[in-house]
């Protein structure tokens, strides 16, 4: 049975961060629950709902932005004490709003993640984890990459403190005291952790994780190793997961999994069998879901899902039926309660309109006076620039607390703008001169009214690096704009991976010189995405990468004074050689560069590229035939006389055109990669073969793999 859920918007606070809204425990069996939320204005708001209206319990004064909000209390008692992380400080409030704790942690960075279990407080800054007990420092750990979330297995079930860190490098780090117990490899960068069923399951060891690329999974954290239980991919290409809760919203006695995503999707997963969860229901809001909770908020006896969105809206999906009684004709009789609510909303709207007019008049008078001072209205932007493994493109997601008017996108490197289905903005391109100003892309997205979230997709070319800039203008007066910059790195299509295939034919680049570990690390950060900016602990580090477009791989190992880079794609080695030499020259460091080229690797890379090339050439040929075949269809009225392959092109015409439109310049990119591979192969031999490129392009048009390999060998 599908759940029947009705949407209710309760209240709007300031912009909210991830995991900053919770429901306080109910005072009785059928009583409604109070909501507590912290926003980026530094205000903690606690309210309840009476007769459909939000009734405040308490509200604190503004201050520094609140990065996390958790509930705590003695173990095995109702968790009704409110704890908020503000900068490097943790504050505690009672459910009535009285502050009882102000704990300055002395962390050098702001708190990014927090978890509370009884007297134990677990805090994480970007790379640092700290464990406190009764506000006394107990344990410390320095992570190899950024920490996104933290939790601890329930002490009453597992009998010892087991903190788990969700780290950006696709790893869960399980700790024991100040030491790393073991690591758990995940399919994507984990953004949120939650105890399965709200209590860690029967064993207390089960953790649910959500990743930034939209995957969901459950793993069992035992004392010696992790046991993966299930994993759900992101076939529907939805947003990253920001929040998870467990609650029985269907009323079947089994808690469902509630998931909130950064594209506004709320999902309910049901455990029909004992194994994998099944998606039972989803609901789309227009902005990212920062926090999600299941409980009873609006009316006694009716459960609901409460979500806090990025712009601060607290929205409920309630099981309470919306009663409508049929009147005479098609009229609907509204209840007395609803009529009074509409009347009060009308009065409130009129008062707001009068207030806005009054403030506009005041602003006009003030702006024309001799003492006028220009002030730029501040607005918050939530942005995310990530590489998608599925189609080797970058997603740029921009979310603003108010409606977006337009976004201008500019780049000093060649980029392809790809179509996004969810995008309703109108895009217009401006011609730009690439020579004097290095301007390769200039496009404007004009958004429809009330658009607060915009998603763009771009594909870069490896070896060409620079900056993508987004100029964001919201619909506010006076007009103002924010500029956000995103680095396009030399090996921009590479993504971190846990391991690589060591049996592939590899080319090796070796660097030696008077450089420090921090210096060579900064060069690797400059060249490759997903490398932590902080210099790793220890004397040596190895990172593995995979090219999302071609499937080639890279192994990078370096220490003070030397670096080794291995790849099955000679073009990757060529790009690294050029960029690293340039970076070392900038710092006046002499490099000794040597390389070992494996001839077999070129054939191997061509075999990886060829199926993609063949597919794209066939797609292009089919698309070019569509207009002629449609014209035949109009003239003849019947296409039975056509060969089956041509009839199938007509039948699939819309899908073929859609796919071709979604992947502009895909074929040109593949031609470019093969040409670069050809030039790079001979560059390492000291031969310039640019004059032979036209012959190579002729062979590519023929799409003959053996002929292509023979040309590479004979040139």
Automatic annotation (TrEMBL):
Cited InterPro entries: Bardet-Biedl_syndrome_7_prot (IPR016575), BBS7_GAE_dom (IPR056334), BBS7_hairpin (IPR056335), BBS7_pf_dom (IPR056333), Beta-prop_BBS7 (IPR056332), WD40_repeat_dom_sf (IPR036322)
Annotated ranges, domain BBS7 platform: 494-596
Residue stretches making up the BBS7 GAE domain: 377-486
GO CC, one annotated term: neuron projection
Coiled-coil annotated spans: 335-369
GO terms classed as biological process: intracellular protein localization; non-motile cilium assembly
Alphabetically ordered keywords of this record: Coiled coil
Residue stretches making up the BBS7 helical hairpin domain: 599-712
BBS7 beta-propeller domain location: 21-319
PANTHER family documented for this protein: BARDET-BIEDL SYNDROME 7 PROTEIN (PTHR16074:SF4)
Protein name per UniProt: BBS7 protein
Species whose genome carries this gene: Anthoscopus minutus
